[in-house]
Amino acid sequence: MTSTSIYPKITTHILKEMKLKGEKIAMLTAYDYSMAKILDKAGIDIILVGDSASNVMAGHTTTLPITLNDMIYHASSVMRAVKRALVVVDLPFGTYQGDSKEALQSSIRIMKESGANTVKLEGGEEVIESVERILSAGIPVMGHLGLTPQSIHKFGTYVVRATDENEAKKLIKDAHLLEKAGCFSIVLEKIPAKLGAQVTKELKIPIIGIGAGPDVDGQVLVLHDMLGITQKFSPRFLRRYHNLSEEIKGSVKAYISDVKNLNFPNEREQY
Ligand code: KIV
What we know:
CATH architecture of the largest domain: Alpha-Beta Barrel
Number of domains: 2
Helix content: 40-55%
Strand content: 5-15%
Mean pLDDT: 96
Structural class: alpha/beta
Oligomer: single chain
Number of helices: 12
CATH superfamily of the largest domain: Phosphoenolpyruvate-binding domains
CATH class of the largest domain: Alpha Beta
Shape: globular
Strand order of the largest sheet: 1-2-3-4-5-6-7-8
Order of helices and strands: HHEHEHHEHEHEHHEHEEHH
Bound molecules: 3-methyl-2-oxobutanoic acid
């Protein structure tokens, strides 16, 4: 039996149950109604309205420019489509880091204006006050550690994180802090597989990996990357299931040719 038939609706509690049973969790990003509808019907467990929308939807080189209003727009579109999946929405850069009251206000806006189920934010100890305040209002929080793209200017590079002992120790400590604060899950991005396995074993909450190896509780990919809509981004952890960019280009070329050569519309395609 597939997870789709067992769980009619995914909640944070179901995710914990899935971890306990050793059932893997499948998560993908989506930013619009049509894609979210396809993902939900296919049986995806979690849809992340990621701030990667800044890259793949808006064409920015980092996730930093996207605004809270932009995220609410994307999340609202996704929420209109989704019946089964749990929807997680990224708190964008600059809306939660410095001030826990602002973090709560940003989260409340996301929940009220989009109808989303949960929020995600990046960081550990540095943002723990924000995490606690958001949780105190009854809003479920997913953490995100390892390569946290909102800190790209601090890192200076997108290479694998926590390969040295100090960073690995801090990551483990942060993961425990997030769990203790009450986060329902944590994303671990681009870290050694061994470290991903260790955190997954030590924590009771589900750990979702993106480039964190196979021994985590679930996997997440950016939809546009796994479908081959984006072309240049090719990290080792990315498995491309399609080459949609080429397929779309081929369809558009065929359409252009049909229009120019008077092959479209034909007699059956008119009134
Ligand atoms: O914004 C995003 O797509 C993410 C994933 C990479 C986990 O945070």
